[in-house]
Amino acid sequence: MEAEGYLERVRIVLVDTQDGANIGSVCRAMKTMGITDLAIVSDREYDEDRVRTLALHASDVWENAARFHTLGEALADSIFTVGATRRRGKFRKLSAYSPEQLSEKVSTLPEGRISIVFGRESDGLRDDEVAQCSSIVTIPTSDSFPSLNLSQAVQIICYTLFRGALIYTPGMMAVSHERAREAAAEATGHLAAMGYFKMADEEKWTNQLLCDIIERAALSGEELRRFSKIFSKAELIAMHKREGI
Question: Are 129 and 83 contacting, i.e. CB atoms less than 8 angstroms apart?
């Protein structure tokens, strides 16, 4: 698959963008790098003139953009989800890809949609939105002025992916973002039934860790089935031991 086809599986997701002009600039940034799949998570109505003026000859990206009410809906069919953020903290990811590392990761993934999520112009992605992604990507910037404009951030990520686009051989199909989250919830439920969790929030963070690991591993359906069986079987063994069987 040539670069153009390879990049067709990349989706740029904008969460609650505040100004239509910034959406137009994002459309132009995307199309110059061969990426045209745009998703907008917002119930806002945008001024068409502001969008189209900045999009210029990339208005088709805006016209074909998918609209979603929630980020979960936008990510449901993706096999790999990445939030773009520079902020770190207790309720965010423990590690981050650089743009170059993200490009390398994308080149190793099996077939399926890859979603890269960008937040609001004012304050980026919230903690709960970052938590819905399996990974984060951080663009290095100067400590004296670290803030990037939304379209600039999108341009840098799209450019890096464009430069790293490789001949891609379709093969295994990885499970979707939605299925990975379901499997993580099931595994966490088995651990809870065994009495594994002792500390506050331990169940929540274990579930998030399992979500991230399953998605980043790009497991096939059969691999995920076998992975899930480990937890269900462990619960059965623990139950039998408690009953003295």
Answer: yes
pLDDT along the chain (245 residues), means of 10: 74 97 98 97 96 96 98 97 86 86 92 96 94 95 92 97 76 88 96 92 93 93 94 91 74
* CA-to-CA dists, residue 238 to 89, 116, 221, angstroms: 35, 40, 26
Report the alpha-carbon distance of residue 155 to residue 70 in Å, rounded.
24
Other beta carbons within 10 angstroms of residue 134's beta carbon come to 25
pLDDT of residue 1: 45
Of 2.40.110.20, 3.30.565.10, 3.40.50.11740, 3.40.1280.10, which CATH number belongs to 3-164?
3.40.1280.10
**214 touches 183 (CB < 8 A):** yes
Q: Which residue type occupies 102?
A: L
Structure token digits, residue 106: 């994308």
Cα 49 to Cα 24, 55, 64, 76: the distances in Å are 9, 10, 16, 31
CB atoms within 10 A of CB 230: 11
Which residue is listed with tokens 């399996």? 134
Residues 6+ apart with CB under 8 A from 118: 12, 13, 14, 15, 26, 84, 124, 125, 150, 153, 154
Full strand arrangement of the beta sheet holding 37-41: 66-68, 37-41, 10-15, 113-118, 78-84, 135-137
Name the token pair of 11. 């989706």
Nearest to 89 by CA among 41, 40, 124, 141: 124
**pTM for the predicted model, two decimal places:** 0.86
